Amino acid sequence: MKFRMFTDAISGEKIAVNVDKVLRIGVACKTANTTYIHLDYCIEDGGEKLESVIEVSESFDIVFSRLNTIAE
User: Fold this and answer.
1) Do residues 56 and 16 make contact, with C-beta atoms less than 8 angstroms apart?
2) What are residue 52's phi and psi, to 5 degrees?
3) How far apart are alpha carbons 72 and 69 in whole angstroms?
4) Which residues contact 8 (CB under 8 A, 6 or more apart)?
5) What is the pTM of this model?
6) Span between the terminal Cα atoms of the chain, in Å
7) How many CA atoms lie within 13 Å of 13's alpha carbon, on the beta-carbon side?
8) Cβ(20)–Cβ(3) below 8 Å
């Protein structure tokens, strides 16, 4: 498993995202200082796959580069 740290757009808390579970990223909305990114995230609950959305406050370029970097 490879994890990357992001900042939750709503609470401002740090969250760890498993790179292997991210299905899609996209810009949700843009404010003066922050771009909110949707991470479509696949989680398993008792064998059932569920999709959830995480909004992070990093820019699209930062999110993409962090997800694209191979963990050592």
Assistant:
1) no
2) -130, 165
3) 9
4) 14, 15, 54, 55, 56, 57
5) 0.69
6) 11
7) 5
8) no
Inter-residue contact 37 to 56 (CB < 8 Å): yes
Q: Which two tokens stand for residue 66?
A: 């962090």
Using CB atoms within 10 Å of the CB of residue 26, give its burial: 0 to 12 exposed, 13 to 18 middle, 19+ buried: exposed
Instruction: Tell me how far apart the alpha carbons of residues 51 and 39 are, in angstroms, rounded to a whole number.
Output: 10
Q: CA–CA separation, 49 vs 36, rounded Å?
A: 25
Q: Are strands 14-18 and 3-7 parallel, antiparallel or unpaired?
A: antiparallel
Here the tokens at position 48 are 């059932």
Residues 4-29: tens digit of each pLDDT:
999 988 899 998 888 877 877 777 77
The DSSP string of 11-37 is: T--EEEEEGGGEEEEEEEEE-SS-EEE
